[in-house]
Every structure is written in C-alpha cells, then in structure tokens.
C-alpha cells in the first residue's frame, strides 16, 4: 500500500458520520462573513450598513493578487460591518447580514455558462478567483493563486486530496460518495487550468466505497485515476500525499509546483466545478459536526457565516457534561474555540467536540527520551529537541535543527507518553524566531 | 445570539456547567503514559525474578525487596527534600531497584545492596535532575559503585539451589569466569534455562527473553537495541571463535552467558540513556556489544556488559547530535 514514511494511527471515529448523507442545514437568519477567510490580503467591504444584498453577491474584495473575494451567503440586509471574532482567534472585520431565513437562490447548471473545455486557462482562473474559492482542506489558500504556476514550471500532475486523514471528519468522504461527477469534472477543469496531462484522486483505504463512486465518474478517461493510500495520519499533508502518490520529495522550502505537482482538496474541486458550470460563488460548504461531545453527529451543508452555536444546535447540541473542547477542524490540527459565536468560514472542514475523558491533560512530565516523537515525525525532525529549543528561546539551534520544516501535524505531541505539548512549543519557537528576525535581535 | 456554550446547552436542554477547555493542537493524545511504561517493565521482569527465587531461594526475593525499598525510598526522600513533586511511585525507581538486585550475587549483603540502590537513585539519577535527565543507567552505575566498594563480595557466587545464607555458602564460579580463567565452557542448555552460578538475573536467558519480548510486543522497546547489542556480541565474539575455537567461546555462549541478555533487553533499551535517532541506536547498541566482548576476552574482568553499556551511555548525547535523521525534502547532508 502506498504511503509516506513514519506517521501515526490515531483512533479515527469516522463511523459516527461516514454513513450519514449530507444534509442541508437550516438557512440561517443571520450570518457573519469575515472579510478575511483566506491566506493573503484581507478584503475591503463593498457594502455598507443598511444595504440590501442578494445571495451570491460579492460583498468584499481586494486588489492584491494573493486574496479571494467574499460573497453574501444569504439574501438580506447588511446589519453592520464591524470586527467580529473569527475561528482562527483574532477579531476580523466582518459583514453581518440578516435575512428572513427563507429566500433562497437556486444554483444549477447554467445554460449560458461556457463549456469548461472551451475556456482558456486564464479564463478558468478568473472564474475561480471571482467565485472566492480557496482551499477547503483547512489552509484556505486562494485557489486561483495556486493554479497560477510561474511560466518556467511545468505542471504534469494534479492530485486531488481525498485523504481526509483527520479523525472524525467525513465531509470530503461524503462529497466523494454523493457528488463524484462534480469532483471529477472539477479535477478536469484544474488540469486544464494548469496544463497538466495527468490527474489523480488520492484517498485512504478506509474509504474504498468512494473509490467505487469516483471510478464510475471517471468512466474511461485514461488521464485520471484513483489512488488508494494507507490510512495513516497525516496522509493528507501536501508533501506526504505527493510522496505517497508520485514518490516525489518536495525539497525543503519549496512548493509542490517545484516538483511539477498541484494539490487541491476534493471539496475545492467541487466548488470549482460549481463556479464554472453554475456560476455559483463559494457561499456554503460541507462541515462534519462530530466528536464524543455532540449528541447527533452529522455532515451538514452550511452557509458560510453561520454561527457554530447554530450549527451545533442542529446536531442536538452538546452531550457530555464536564470538560470539553470545541474545535474548528479535527482534533489533530483544529483550533479550540471558547466563544460559539464564531462563524463557519471557508476553511472550516469540521466542528469537533472532544469531551469528558477524551479531553487531554494539561499536565506534562519530563521527557524520557523514548524517541517516539522522532519515530513518527513525517518530516524527519527531532521534535523533542526543537520543542525544547523553541520553549527556551534557543533560536540558533532551533533554526539549524530545521524546526521551520515542521508542518505542525501534531504526531509528536500525540505519541508523547509524557504528554509534552511539543507542537505548541515549536509554534512558540517559530513566533519567537519571526519576532527576532523582525527586530534584528535574538 | 448565543454568547457562550450556555445558550447552546439551554437550547438542547443540557446541563448547567460549561467547562470549555481551550488548548493548542493536537487535542487528542495517546493513552500511553510514563507510569504505564514503567510498570510494564516491572511486569516484564517478573519471569526473571521468579527464576532467581526458584534458583536461589527466598534470599533472592529479599535482596530484590531491599533494593526496591532503597531505590523508591531514596527517590521519595530526594524529591521531598528538593521540594519537587513526588513521583517516586511512577515505577522508574522500582525498575532501578529490581535491575540492580538482578545484577548482584545471591549472597550479597543486604546493607550493601541497600547502599547501592540509594547510590543509583541519588547520585546516578536525582543529581542529574531526576527521571529523563540522567546520562548513565542508574542501576548499572549503582552496580559499578558496589563493584568498587565490595570487590570481593560482588564476585562471590553460589551454585543454584545451594543455600545463599551466610558462611555455609559454597562459592562457585560463573560460566564466564570458568571460561576465562579455566577455559571451561558451560553447556548451552544450562545457560538458557539458568541452571548456572551467577547474579540473580543473569542466569536464565529464557526468563529474560520472555520479558523482553513482552516489552517489544507492547512497543516499549526499540528492536534495534537488543538486536544490535546481541548481534554484535555474537558476531564479534564469533570472529574470535572462528579464528581459534579452542581458545575462544562460541557466539551462542557469549549471548547466553553472563549479563548479556539482561543488559540487551533491559539496560541497552533504557529509554532515557539510549539514543533517540535510528542510526544512533544502531551505533550505540553495536558498539556496546563489541566493547562487552573485548572486555570479556581481553580485559581483566570476566564480564563486560556493565561497562560496555555505561561507556556507551556517555556517548549518547554526541550520537544524538551526529546522527540526526535526514529531514524530509532535505538534500543529502
């Protein structure tokens, strides 16, 4: 079975939602749309308080290349344009829209939309950018930028990431089962945009059912294949995926396009298809709501801007008593939330509630040099060592032991028998390094 | 609009208390922890303890009990004195006590054993900062201390099933001493099952192997370490056997006799004092195995396991530095 070196096998708990078809969430009466939901330049608002907006209307954009516009997820009136808490932590300028909870646009195949096969690469990128599409796997990098490789880089392969290696999350899994044609069509559009001759969809072998649905959708296109990969975390990390599928190593500090590859999430491909064929901007996404702290785990298609509390309420609310962590994303790389007012954003692949005995202890013990972290680090680092350097501010060593190569997947912290928060300390080190390089002092 | 989790819970009819925790990712962890690892090692030592009691009687058990008491007691005392959290019950001190006892002759004085275990904990472990910070294997450093302080008693052995109590003990030679000083080889089967003179835990290779394989099964020891050590002992010892079978013992004798098995499965594999890198682990284990054979064949002592491991313990920080794994995507260094 194809895979990468090292990594871990956490308990996946996917069975909670892997068999649950995607449901449309109740149309929210109020949405909070942050003007930055992507990596890059924040958008400036295009609407002001009191404006009427229509579902799908662009409400924020930026002049910068590395950015993605945002659109009104519902029809209604702009209540305010004000800073609002964002799942990434900070307060971000957001457009707050209130609607009647009923008016809906119908998005379907638009007869006036040109056939994707007749669009030029440049036109495809323009559609993708205008639709505000970003990577839906979590990093939320503007897709139009990703699909604009420099002229001197030949892209031969597009990989769609269907690994979904985070425990609990099944949104991509359901998308591949329920909308395989859109995934495959989206892949073909991406291949056209970057001039790639081959495309493949990498999935872990715990999702063989979507291998069948995808293979049927691919039909007999010889350029495209489904690649089964070992179920192992973090198989969905870009570099690990490229290694597993193509046996290519992305050099340190380089990008996938430097080895001729572009990786996109399967859900992103669906959005690209919808942007081209339905002229539909990115205003909703599938979110897995799961965890042992959720009463009725579900896969929900949620409008961007819907509050976490609203989404959780539609899943029966929180179940367990006692301690809990409410995460934007999965348990390995998700961000803990303390305020359930936060909106679902483009990068919210799941809402996971870890509760009760599953909540990790805060206490940690001394490192016993068991080397578990070294044995699982997919990047080949020595986590216990760089974590200590990061914690203690030993920036020379931190850099020379390649701490900047850390992808923060969390394997090291996961396996540590002393419960040491290794990734946290590595993050602290990275911030220290950034600050010291800014000020020019150590 | 819901301001906190309260509103959600009100809506869903859940309880009153919130208890929202906010932490840095990852938010789920393995269920492994240090006490579980340590007590698994203790459990893995039970077969060896059982055989030592079977061969040498109740005195063996008492000797082990004395060492555990000395080790755990002094760990507790030091942690109290230093004002540190008391973790004397995490199993690591108990392991040191048991391992030290298993390296001692059955007739070794109780007071000396107690002293050795206190030395192992206080000097070899706590002075360095406690669990995780010690450079040398505490049990082995404790034994080295006893070798210096009780040079005669620590090499006074008794035959199995003979009384180890006091004056009427009949002193006997270990298989390695017989080999070295008299050129006589003990039969392999006796070595494997343990029916030979020796320290409590170096007699039965079978009992130690059972414990070691259990730890391997639990994933608590890295297979490179025992394999590298025993492999090097057999291969390097084997070279001399091939050169002169009349003078040098065969590889299997090297592996089964003395402390090679105990060292390979329970001391070379000590997490704290072995390297953390894959190639460092190979170098560490193989070099220690070679040193053990050199001492056995050419040194002044019949047995070299203890010093082989202690010497390589000292090199571990350097090995970790020199054998950094290749970073993914890094050009060859």
Average of per-residue pLDDT values of chain A? 92
Tell me the greatest interface: A-B, 79 and 56 residues
Distance between the termini of chain B: 57 Å
Total count of strands of chain B: 2
Radius of gyration of chain A: 21 Å
Mean pLDDT of chain B: 87
Given the C-alpha coordinates, what overall shape of chain B results?
globular
Low-confidence stretches of chain B: 1-17
| Fraction of residues in helix of chain A | 25-40%
CATH topology of the domain at 14-20 and 108-277 in chain A: Rossmann fold
**CATH architecture designation of chain B:** Orthogonal Bundle
Number of helical regions of chain B: 14
What do we call the CATH homologous superfamily of the domain at 14-20 and 108-277 in chain A?
Answer: NADH-ubiquinone oxidoreductase 51kDa subunit
Strand content bin of chain B: under 5%
Q: Which stretches of chain A are poorly predicted, pLDDT < 50 over at least 5 residues?
A: none
How many distinct beta strands of chain A? Answer: 17
Main beta sheet of chain B: strand number and arrangement?
2 strands, antiparallel
Oligomer: heterodimer
The ordered H/E elements of chain B are: HHHHHHEEHHHHHHHH
Helix content estimate of chain B? 55-70%
SSE pattern of chain A, N- to C-terminal: EEEEEEEEHHEHHEHEHEHEEHEEEHHHHH
Question: What can you see in these coordinates?
Answer:
The complex is a heterodimer of chains A (442) and B (333). Chain A has 442 residues and is an alpha/beta fold. Among the domains of chain A are: 14-20 and 108-277, Rossmann fold (3-Layer(aba) Sandwich), CATH 3.40.50.11540; 372-439, no CATH class. Chain A has 13 helices and 17 strands. In chain A, the strands form 4 sheets. Chain A has a 6-stranded mixed β-sheet with strand order 1-14-13-17-15-16. Chain A has a 4-stranded antiparallel β-sheet with strand order 2-8-7-4, with no helix packed on it. In chain A, strands 11-10-9-12 form a 4-stranded parallel β-sheet, sandwiched between helices. In chain A, a hairpin with a 6-residue loop joins strand 15 and strand 16 (335-337). Chain A is globular and about 65 Å long. With 333 residues, chain B is mainly α. Chain B has a single domain, classed as Ammonium transporter fold. Chain B has a two-stranded antiparallel ribbon with strand order 1-2. Mean pLDDT of chain B is 87; it is low at 1-17. The longest helix of chain B is centred in the N-terminal third of the chain and has 24 residues, at 58-81. Chain B has 14 helices and 2 strands; from the N terminus they run ααααααββαααααααα. Chains A and B meet through helix 8, strand 15, strand 16, helix 12 and helix 13 of A and helix 1 and helix 2 of B.
């Amino acid at each position: 079975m194809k895979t990468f070196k090292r990594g871990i096998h956490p308990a996946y708990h996917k069975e909670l939602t892997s068999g649950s078809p995607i449901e449309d969430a109740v149309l929210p009466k109020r949405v909070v749309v942050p003007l930055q939901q992507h990596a890059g330049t924040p958008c400036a608002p295009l609407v002001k308080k009191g404006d009427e907006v229509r579902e799908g209307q662009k409400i924020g954009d930026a002049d910068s290349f590395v950015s993605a516009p945002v659109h009104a997820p519902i029809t209604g009136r702009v209540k305010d344009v004000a800073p609002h808490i964002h799942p990434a932590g900070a307060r971000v300028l957001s457009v707050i829209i209130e609607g009647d909870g009923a008016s809906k646009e119908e998005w379907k195949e638009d007869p006036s939309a040109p056939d994707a096969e007749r669009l030029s690469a440049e036109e495809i990128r323009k559609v993708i950018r205008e639709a505000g599409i970003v990577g839906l796997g979590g990093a939320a990098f503007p897709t139009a930028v990703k699909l604009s490789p420099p002229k001197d880089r030949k892209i031969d392969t597009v990989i769609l990431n269907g690994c979904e290696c985070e425990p609990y999350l099944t949104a991509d899994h359901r998308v591949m089962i329920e909308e395989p044609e859109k995934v495959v069509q989206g892949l073909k559009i991406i291949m056209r945009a970057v001039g790639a001759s081959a495309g493949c969809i990498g999935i872990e072998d715990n999702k063989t059912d979507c291998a069948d649905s995808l293979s049927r959708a691919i039909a007999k296109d010889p350029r495209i294949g489904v690649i089964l990969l070992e179920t192992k975390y973090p198989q969905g990390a870009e570099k690990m995926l490229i290694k597993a599928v193509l046996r290519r190593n992305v050099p340190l500090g380089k990008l996938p396009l430097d080895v001729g590859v572009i990786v996109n999430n399967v859900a992103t491909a669906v959005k690209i298809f919808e942007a081209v064929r339905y002229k539909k901007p990115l205003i909703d996404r599938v979110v897995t709501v799961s965890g042992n702290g959720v009463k009725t785990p579900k896969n929900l298609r949620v409008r961007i801007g819907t509050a976490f509390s609203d989404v959780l309420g539609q899943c029966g609310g929180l179940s367990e008593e006692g301690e809990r962590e409410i995460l934007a994303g999965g348990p390995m790389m998700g961000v803990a939330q303390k305020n359930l007012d936060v909106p679902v954003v483009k990068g919210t692949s799941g809402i996971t509630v870890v509760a009760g005995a599953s909540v990790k202890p805060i206490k940690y013990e001394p490192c016993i040099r068991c080397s578990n972290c070294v044995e699982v680090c997919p990047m080949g680092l020595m986590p216990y060592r760089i974590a200590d350097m990061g914690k203690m501010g030993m920036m020379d060593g931190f850099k020379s032991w390649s701490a900047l190569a850390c992808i923060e997947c969390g394997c090291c912290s996961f396996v540590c028998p002393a419960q040491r928060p290794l990734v946290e300390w590595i993050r602290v080190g990275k911030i220290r390094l950034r600050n010291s390089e800014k000020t020019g002092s150590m | 609009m819901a301001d906190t989790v309260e509103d959600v819970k009100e809506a869903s009819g859940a309880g009153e208390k919130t208890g929202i925790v906010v932490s840095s990712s990852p938010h789920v962890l393995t269920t492994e922890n240090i006490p579980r690892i340590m007590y698994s090692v203790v459990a893995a030592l039970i077969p060896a303890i059982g055989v030592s009691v079977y061969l040498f009687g109740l005195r063996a058990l008492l000797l082990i009990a004395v060492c555990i008491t000395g080790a755990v007691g002094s760990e507790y005392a030091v942690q109290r004195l230093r004002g540190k959290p008391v973790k004397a019950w995490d199993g690591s001190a108990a392991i040191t006590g048991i391992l030290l006892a298993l390296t001692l002759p059955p007739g070794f004085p109780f007071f000396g054993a107690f002293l050795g275990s206190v030395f192992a904990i206080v000097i070899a472990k706590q002075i360095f900062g406690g669990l995780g910070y010690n450079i040398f294997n505490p049990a082995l450093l404790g034994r080295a201390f006893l070798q210096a302080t009780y040079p005669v008693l620590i090499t006074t052995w008794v035959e199995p099933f003979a009384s180890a109590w006091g004056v009427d003990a009949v002193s006997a030679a270990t298989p390695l001493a017989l080999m070295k000083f008299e050129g006589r080889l003990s039969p392999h089967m006796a070595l494997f099952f343990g029916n030979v003179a020796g320290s409590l835990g170096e007699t039965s290779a079978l009992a130690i192997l059972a414990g070691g394989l259990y730890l391997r099964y639990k994933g608590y020891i890295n297979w490179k370490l025992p394999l590298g050590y025993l492999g090097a002992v057999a291969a390097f010892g084997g070279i001399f056997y091939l050169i002169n079978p009349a003078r040098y013992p065969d590889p299997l004798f090297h592996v089964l006799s003395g402390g090679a098995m105990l060292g390979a499965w329970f001391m070379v594999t000590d997490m704290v004092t072995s390297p953390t890198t894959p190639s460092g682990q190979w170098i560490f284990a193989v070099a220690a195995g070679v040193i053990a054979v050199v001492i056995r064949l050419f040194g002044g002592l019949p047995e070299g396991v203890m010093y082989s491991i202690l010497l390589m313990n000292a090199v571990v920080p350097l090995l970790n530095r020199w054998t950094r794994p290749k970073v993914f995507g890094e050009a060859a260094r």
